[in-house]
Design goal:
Elements lengths: L2 H23 L11 E5 L6 H17 L3 E5 L6 H8 L7 E6 H9 L11 E16 L8 H10 L5 E4 L5 H13 L4 E4 L3 H10 L4 E5 H9 L4 E5 L25 E9 L4 H15 L2 H9 L3 E2 L4 H22 L5
Parallel strand pairs: 1-2, 1-3, 5-6, 5-7
Antiparallel strand pairs: 3-9, 4-7, 4-8, 4-9, 4-10
Helix pairs in contact: 2-9, 4-11
């Protein structure tokens, strides 16, 4: 064999080896997302977390040209859903629709199998919303002062509903009990929708529900709103006083909702999701829909959202300890 023939033969062998190696490695990774993405919600359908998830899922599907499917896994104040996502592959195809509840749960529950700061990769904040103090219209009160007076005259006879143990709807009630010096029974539900159903039916008397899920019932007259739980009034209900105006200057509770992925999810996937989320939140139609529910779109970077989650864990940790509330 001549030198040239040997050289050509060697080149072909190298090319063949390279081709075989490429074949064994499989095709190049398809651009994300190349299959449906699951958005796991820790509450039953109809509540604010579920509503926010469905609004953003539809827009993410349009932007990224792939299906984004909302999956409800209620239980343990959203902890079951959070743990499910933590155990999922960190590939961007299983996301958790996180809420302020998870920041509260970090202190409220003593034996969690995950840490929301360490075990999740933040994608971005979606919306913020005040809670609203609503009562069944049969309750003979029309403002916060009358509610406090009624509670003091009827100790232990009022029951307040929440979307689940540990959420802002629960802790707002505990904070109110603490600051007003009253006794009320906490009745947790698996989401805002069943809590509102029982409140309207009179099985419980009041709730500090998220504005997006409660406001529709206020507008139809099924519930009576007494105050928003933030220090300032809500632009969605400018005539409704705040808790601060109602005699509780240090009362300031709001809800927030966002997206996180399991820790270890590739950075480029997180960045692509964040860009799509922020693009959706900038759409006038999306902003108008959230505004109508009493919520405000709140785009962030993943880093900003991560810092926000960490600060919320610290803030709510202090409230949980002060209230003495616990959950198992």
């Amino acid at each position: 064999m001549t030198f040239l023939s040997r050289k050509i033969s060697t080149c072909w062998k190298l090319l063949l080896a390279g081709a075989l190696a490429w074949g064994c490695a499989g095709p190049a990774q398809a651009a994300y997302p190349d299959k449906p993405v699951r958005l796991v919600v820790g509450f039953s359908p109809g509540g604010t977390t579920d509503i926010a998830a469905r609004v953003i899922a539809a827009e993410l599907g349009n932007i990224l040209k792939q299906s984004f499917v909302v999956e409800n896994k209620p239980g343990a104040g959203s902890n079951l859903a959070a743990e499910h996502v933590v155990r999922s592959n960190p590939d961007g195809y299983t996301l958790f629709v996180i809420a302020v509840t998870s920041a509260i749960n970090q202190t409220l529950y003593k034996n969690l199998n995950f840490d929301i700061v360490k075990d999740f990769a933040p994608v971005g904040l979606l919306i913020r919303s005040p809670n609203v103090l609503v009562v069944n219209p049969s309750l003979p009160v029309h403002n916060v002062k009358e509610l406090v007076d009624y509670a003091k005259k009827n100790p232990g006879k009022l029951a307040f509903a929440s979307a689940g143990t540990g959420g802002s709807t629960h802790m707002a009630g505990e904070l109110f009990k603490l600051q007003a010096g009253i006794d009320m029974l906490h009745v947790p539900y698996r989401g805002s929708a069943p809590a509102m159903t029982d409140l309207i039916g009179g099985q419980v008397q009041l709730s500090f529900d998220n504005m997006p899920s409660a406001w529709q019932h206020v507008q139809t007259g099924k519930l009576r709103a007494l105050a928003v739980t933030t220090k300032e009034r809500s632009a969605s209900a400018p005539d409704l006083p705040s808790m601060a105006e109602s005699g509780f200057p240090e009362f300031d509770v709001s809800a927030w909702f966002g997206l996180v992925a399991p820790a270890g999810t590739p950075k480029d996937v997180i960045e692509k999701l964040n860009a799509a989320v922020n693009q959706a939140l900038a759409m006038p139609s999306v902003r108008e829909r959230f505004d109508a529910m009493g919520a405000v779109a709140a785009p962030t970077t993943p880093e900003q959202f991560g810092q926000y989650i960490k600060s919320e864990v610290e803030i709510w940790g202090e409230v949980v300890k002060a209230s003495g509330a616990t959950a198992n």
